Amino acid sequence: MWGGRFAAGPAAVMREINASIPFDKRMWKQDVAGSRAHVAMLGAQGIVAADDVRAIDAGLERVAAGYAVDGVPDDLAMEDIHMLTEARLADAIGPAAGRLHTARSRNDQVATDFRLWTRDATDQVLAALLALDDSLLARAEEHAASVMPGFTHLQSAQPVTLGHHLMAYHEMVARDVSRFRDNRARANLCPLGAAALAGTGFPIDREATAAALGFDGPTRNSLDSVSDRDFALDYLMAAAQCALHLSRLAEEFVLWASQPFGFVSLSDQWSTGSSIMPQKRNPDAAELVRGHAGRITGCLVSLMVTMKGLPLAYSKDMQDDKPPVFEAHDLLALSIAAMTGMVESATFRTDRMRALAESGFATATDLADWLVREANVPFREAHHITGRAVARAEALGVALDALPIVELTAIDPRIDARVYDVLSVDASVASRRSFGGTAPDNVRAAIRAAREARA
Ligand code: ARG
């Protein structure tokens, strides 16, 4: 492509380190689409003659058809997908192919292709996240009133409902959806026409190419257009954040599926066995979702470190932008699909959850609140009285609501038998009606609101 200036070809290692085709061939559809929009604009502006435009466009279609059938080879001599497509075009239509690159550089071309690819990836992630959200909402509805222990420090804290717990993940997924949508809106500007870095002297129409490729308009500054990779970093940031959420849910599944918890059995489809221990049902998919979050975060860090300190405009370092985004996308797509499958098919052991919720003195706060409400005891003092009640129950080996009233009145005479109304786990969750609280009616209202927000 630059033979005029060079007497010798590249060293083999130069060729290898320089080539991006092994990974950027993944953008071949975007590359062809960008070239077709560009040549149509060159024709409309009278920069390339109509018959050449027709030949180039038909040739690009043939090149694309070839890629679709045979795949794209790792042709290191061609360096990247942009060069290979142009070479294939020249094979197909002859010298007219040489007019395609008028008023364009690979710098604005690759920035355009990569934005298009990232936009498609974002749309795929959004669809997958909405499917995950559907299954979270469905399972939350099913378990709006199923009591489980709520934890802080992984110690039994207060009873909550499983529906409420799953709706916490709905909130995370909803924020992920909003983050990916914000990214898409911000990134949807077209760098094509920035050329190498300074713009071009040809009378191009950047609005036209932007519109043809579904962008909201052209990017504003030619230097920024070819050196900006914020759209890729934004994708990775959202992907890492999303992966982190999935990883927390995956970790809960790993814990819950363990025998000491026994809160969930993963379906056969989402478990693996052991080659030596016949009793095993391992939550490998959940563990891998947890693991993939680390790799996705690594992808984000990788591109941040690549970009930091690069002077304007394009530097070849930026060729390294694509592998982390591709890798993160593949890992994220798998992770979302796997979590969706696990959430959909899990069997929640609600009797076990209830038994543990009842065993950890989880309604102690309800006793303290009762003293505040019914006996006008200051909360700090109520806390102390309740602590003694818990210690007594523990010493007798009974739950708080099985402590005889004489035991309670011995600790504080202001307690009377009405207190038992608040000491059951059902009463506890039903009482938590403050906005955002775990009462089953609140959970159902939250699910309705979530569905309305989606509609
Ligand atoms: N393969 C290159 C990349 O992915 C395309 C841009 C090359 N531009 C250049 N000035 N060498 O970044």
TrEMBL record:
Pfam families: ASL_C2, Lyase_1. Its EC number is 4.3.2.1. The keyword Lyase applies. It is found in: Cytoplasm. One of its GO terms (molecular function) is argininosuccinate lyase activity. It catalyses: 2-(N(omega)-L-arginino)succinate = fumarate + L-arginine. InterPro entries: Arg_succ_lyase_C (IPR029419), Argininosuccinate_lyase (IPR009049), Fumarase/histidase_N (IPR024083), Fumarate_lyase_CS (IPR020557), Fumarate_lyase_fam (IPR000362), Fumarate_lyase_N (IPR022761), L-Aspartase-like (IPR008948). Keywords: Amino-acid biosynthesis, Arginine biosynthesis, Cytoplasm, Lyase. The keyword DNA repair does not apply. It comes from the Bacteria. SUPFAM superfamilies: L-aspartase-like (SSF48557). It is an enzyme of class 4 (lyase). Pathway: Amino-acid biosynthesis; L-arginine biosynthesis; L-arginine from L-ornithine and carbamoyl phosphate: step 3/3. Residues 361-430 form the Argininosuccinate lyase C-terminal domain. Its main location: cytoplasm. Residues 10-298 form the Fumarate lyase N-terminal domain. Belongs to the lyase 1 family. Argininosuccinate lyase subfamily. This is Argininosuccinate lyase. The gene is argH.
